[in-house]
Every structure is written in structure tokens, then in C-alpha cells.
Amino acid sequence: MSDSPPSGPDAMGTDEVLATNSREATIDETLRVLADHERRYVCYYLHREGSMDVDTLARWVAATKAGSHPSADDLTATGVALRHVHLPTLADTGIVEYDREEGVARLAEDAPFVRELLAVTGVELE
User: Fold this and answer.
1) How many Cα atoms occupy the beta-carbon half-sphere of 18 within 13 Å?
2) CB of 87 within 8 A of CB of 36?
3) pTM: predicted TM-score of the whole model, two decimal places
4) 3-class SS at 70?
5) According to the model, what pLDDT value does residue 102 have?
6) Whose CB among 5, 45, 51, 119 lies 3.0–4.6 Å from 106's, allowing a Cys bridge?
7) Where are the beta strands (DSSP E) in the chain?
């Protein structure tokens, strides 16, 4: 039996372990949500432009995906996906503030790690 104090995980208090696990869960969830390229496009545009209505955001995202002017079908599909999938998912994660009634979204002030991730990727959107 050793008289030395515990080291490694044995030396950590329960509060430290839980805080680390909570932070890691937030990072994992943020990265999971931003693994989708359309959600990243949403964040890039909202970071650059600020608050944006969903129709304008759909035009930007659809044009980025198409590489030029999107077709009417692509624009419609992108708008539906933003309203019903991507913006609610980003809002649930705390990355975006999305007002469904007004049809307006903006990057959340305290979006977890998103501004840092956008800076690291260095993507310049036209």
C-alpha cells in the first residue's frame, strides 16, 4: 500500500469530472450538428450578415450548393429543409436564434464554439 496521494482520475473531485463531461458533451453536440454542410453554410452567412430572413438565407445556401443560380426546385427544397430541419436543429443546440413566426434567424451571441470554428475554417463565401 502506498502513502502517496492519489493521482489521475482518482485525484479529481466529482465536480471536476462532471464539468469536463458536460463540456465534452457540448463540444460533441456542436460538432455533430455542424457536420452537415448546409448547417455550416447557414452559420457562415449568419456570421457574415447578421440577422437574415429565411427566404434570403435559402437563396444564399441554395446558390452555394449549386455553385451558381439555383433552380426553383432547389430553392424550394432548401427553404423547406431550413425551416423544418436545419434551423430548428441549430436553434435546439443553441447555435442559432430562430424566430419561426417572423421567419428570421441569427447566430446566437453565445453560440458554443461556433465563431471559433468559423474562424479556424477560414471559409470565404461569395
Assistant:
1) 3
2) no
3) 0.77
4) coil
5) 96
6) 51
7) 52-53, 96-99, 104-107
